[in-house]
Each structure stands twice: as structure tokens, then as C-alpha cells.
Amino acid sequence: MHEPIVNHVEDYLTRSDSTSLPAEFTAHLVGCAECREELTAMEQHSRVVRILKPAEEVDPFPGFYARVLERIEAQRPISMWSIFLQPFGRRIAIASMALALMTGVYLFSTEPGTSPAAIATMNGSQDTLPGEDEPGFVLGSNVDQDRGAVLVNLATYREQ
Questions:
Q1: Which of 44, 52, 69, 151 is least enclosed, having the fewest CB within 10 Å?
Q2: What is the pLDDT of residue 68?
Q3: Sign of the alpha-carbon torsion through 143, 147, 148, 149
């Protein structure tokens, strides 16, 4: 379709009898058979569309939007993380977190000995720690006494 026609096609298809078209449009239409045929076909299509247009606004059937959204969701690619949203996957995730928490607590609570008895054992010293000969001695019961034991062990350390 040529430029003089393209610029005014919409005006031609929606015109009323009182609307006049530019002179160059009508002159080109008289001289060009190709543009005339195309415009005639467009006019026929326009009439068919106007005939099929409902007289009043039509609302979609109930559930239309829900069905459209379901189809969109069905076409969405499945994520590897969606397994954790299903009941079985959620249970696995919770069990894994619980296992990790228990492992962390175990490792934290069994940290290699920094107690005076452990230091004495690492030093190879079988000497008694200060306060051990006292009745009812419990390691860790008296922080000052434990600090003293560590200092004594460090002061009496001998390399063998």
C-alpha cells in the first residue's frame, strides 16, 4: 500500500458520509488498482467486524479469570526450590535444620578441654591440682581456684 493511502486508511474506514477525504487520497485511489483492491478488502473486513460486534458490553463467564490464571501457572517452569514447598520436602528441610542445630550444639559443648584437668593431662603432669586433695572438690565449682590451677600448671610446665 502506498503512502498517500496508508496515511488516511483509518479515516476512510471510519468515515461517515459527511467526512471528506483529501484530494491526493482519492486521486491515488483512482489511479492505483493495487491500493484500491487492498482498501476494498479492508473495508469488507471492517464491515464483518462491525456486524460481529455485540450491541452491549459482554462480561466473561464466571471463573474465566481463574481458569486463565491456572493455565498461566501450569505453563510456568517448575523451580528446583518448589520441592521444599511440598509437605515431604518441608519435612526434609526441617529435619536437616534440626540435625545441623544438634551437630552445632554437640560440637560447641564438647570443645577440646581448656579445663585445668585437661591441661594437666596434656602436659603429662599427674600432679594433683590445687584444691584436689580437699574433700568435695569439683572442677569448675570455683572459678578462682580453677584459674590458680591453670597458673600453677603453666608455671610448673617441663618439657620432656
A1: 52
A2: 93
A3: positive
Residue 7 CB contacts under 8 Å (≥ 6 apart), including other chains: 25
pTM of the model: 0.34
| Whether the Cβ atoms of residue 25 and residue 12 lie closer than 8 Å to each other | yes
- CA dihedral 59→60→62→65, nearest 10 degrees, is -130
Q: Count, in order, helices (H) and strands (E) of the chain.
A: 8, 0
More confident residue, 16 or 78: 78
Q: How many CB atoms lie within 10 A of CB 153?
A: 19
C-alpha span between 153 and 147 (Å, rounded)? 10
* Cβ atoms of 127 and 120 closer than 8 Å: yes
- Residue 116, Cβ density class (10 Å: 0-12 exposed, 13-18 middle, ≥19 buried): buried
